[in-house]
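Re: weekly structure request thread

Next one in the queue (310 aa):
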Amino acid sequence: MPAHPLTGFAVRQAVEQAASVHLGRPWSSKDFVDLDDLASHRSGIFQGESISVFAKLATDPLGRERFVAELEGLTLIHDRAGVTTPTPVGSGTITVSGSVVLLFEALSERRPETRSMSDWRSIGSTLARVHQIQGEHFGLHFDGFYGPLRQQNGVLNGGNWTDFFVQRRLIPMVRSAVESGSLPEELQRGIEAIISRMDSLSGPDPHPTLLHGDAQQHNFVSTDTGAAIIDPAPYFGHPEMDLAQIDVYNPVPGAVFDAYREVARIDSGFDERRELWRLWCYLAAVTVEQSTPFGRRMFRRLSNAVNRYQ
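Done, posted below.
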């Protein structure tokens, strides 16, 4: 089996140097844990004394921009909502041989399959704490990324939530799916029909609320002190967007939503709108993963959702 790209001499040396500067004393890695099965990037943990270092590698031209947006998003959520996020090592990024590596102090976590009911409840209550933060407009002052795809967050002057969802989420993602060759014309017309009816489908207009932005369950880390947030794509939007993503790919116990409701309200019409908000998740998945079994499964779910609402 080929060696993990993060374990090469140059990368390991650069990680150890960054961690040493971060701690103000020499630090060295004793072992490496491969986490590729839990992430969309090549990633792992360099284990050492006092701290271990989580590292994520990007070799594409947008890697640095994507990692900077991730760091900004984590800072925003931590500072505004006071929830736990990983601590960057130094500036949070290093460059090695033209590749960019994102570095955090590793969290002591339980793998998703071993979560207790208390862990699941902490995910719900942590998300609700984020949703307590409100803004003046839908959007954000910087753009982000949803997976490898750009996420447009620019504020629409005078726009309501429906306008933002259509102009900044659905239309750009439809365009990406069409350009990738993964969206048949018939399905595109179905989504356009939904867009024409969006005002009647989207329910009460919410107040702009701080969102995780990619709140699938694997973007919460379960620790002994509660849930920590990772891999956000934040903006101010509709809290139902996050609620729809919690179980978009894998089911979660009802305790997640029970704990959320102890802090924040969920509108009675959410269940009817859940698949509406997932349209852009499905579009992103078929754009990026069109030829994989996962991509084909998301294509079927996209088709079903379009048939439901058009």
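Residues 270-289 form the longest helix (20 residues). The chain has a mean pLDDT of 95.
Next request, please.
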